[in-house]
Amino acid sequence: MKVLIADDSLVMRRLLQATLEGWGFEVVCAADGAEALACLQGKDPPRMAILDWIMPVMTGPEVCQKVRDLRSETYTYLILLTSKSQREDIVEGMGAGADDYVVKPFDKHELEVRLRAGRRILDLQMELMQAQEALREQATRDPLTGCWNRRVILEALERETERAERERRSLAVVMLDVDHFKTVNDTYGHSAGDEALRQVVQRVTGVIRGYDWIGRIGGEEFLIVLPGCDELCTLSHAERLRNSIERTPVDSDGQQIGITVSVGATSLQPGLGITPQLLVRSADAALYAAKRQGRNRVSFQLPERIDRVRSASR
What are the φ and ψ backbone dihedral angles of 252, each rounded to 5 degrees? Predict the structure, then answer.
């Protein structure tokens, strides 16, 4: 673990550095408060710091206060090194944001105990952050394919629709459905079907732009949101998506499985008051048209031309 030592005394810095390195810590040093703060705000900052109370430019408590004001998601454990031993002084330092303190001249065993406690707290915080990230992933991602789940993709579509209307820009919505997916499951097994869905998402993700969205809205159906795409652009993107899936069989435990998709596409022209719900219905209607026409193809339909009669092509 990296630890910052900030002290204007060269002798004290070298003594602390030798002690901490002997305990296996990676040490960086600063000679004043401003240098210490810059180090703690920089790239890959130390997660622990030992700050002398009295330093040029900025005192240890002032550094603590500024670090806490940053409200960084990653916590920095701060220890004040001080010759002050009065209770009111210690209260002042802790009130500025310090986590602990060591009184000069420091005792090696005491310092080691304080550092060990700080490391334990940082390890616990890292575990908590990892657990929070795992929960966030579960709440927003489809567990099988890793793309956005239904709730998130529909929320993204709503935001992008509002932005397109506000900025007078085009917006495309693409609905993609794996052809004869039940046959894949029945013929090769559900694990092969799962692998097919994962590879479909991987291939789509490799084709779409960094600011496009893909989400699984159910079963073998996926919704893709393409900001800034008019009709011609939408057709081009949709055909690239279809082709990226058809041209290479899915490899599942050595089995080569040919997969195709039907694609329904629509686009919003700003100023018509078209809602996200209407865009989804339009893309869905275009998808059903692609299925009626023989599957493994792209069908485009403007929102105001929705065919509400569905065939039993599933």
Answer: -130, 105
| DSSP, residue by residue, 32-101 | SHHHHHHHHHSSS--SEEEEESS-SSS-HHHHHHHHHHH--SS--EEEEEES---HHHHHHHHHTT-SEE
Residue 180: phi and psi, rounded to 5, are 50, 45
- The position carrying tokens 């990653």 is 74
Q: pLDDT of 226-250, one tens digit each?
A: 999 988 999 999 999 999 999 999 9
Co-location of 276 and 155 in the same domain: yes
Q: Which one of the listed residues 35, 160, 195, 220 is annotated catalytic?
A: 220
Per-residue pLDDT tens over the stretch 176-234: 999 999 999 999 999 999 999 999 999 999 999 999 999 999 999 999 999 999 889 99
> Is 71 in the same domain as 155?
no
Tokens 């732009």 identify what position?
209
Query: Domain check: are 122 and 163 in the same one?
Result: no
What CATH number corresponds to the domain at position 278?
Answer: 3.30.70.270
Is the same domain home to 136 and 261?
no
Question: Which structural domain range is residue 58 located in?
Answer: 2-140
Active site residue 220: yes
Q: How far is CA 10 from CA 7, 52, 83, 163, in A?
A: 7, 12, 17, 57
The answer to whether position 184 is within a domain reads yes
Residue 101 in domain: yes
Q: Identify which of 227, 244, 234, 243 has the alpha carbon closest to the alpha carbon of residue 264.
A: 234
Contact 182, 245 (CB under 8 A): no
Is residue 72 assigned to a domain? yes
pLDDT tens by residue, 291-312: 999 999 999 998 864 444 344 4
Q: Which residue has the tokens 């009709």?
A: 231
Last residue of a domain, one of 140, 159, 176: 140
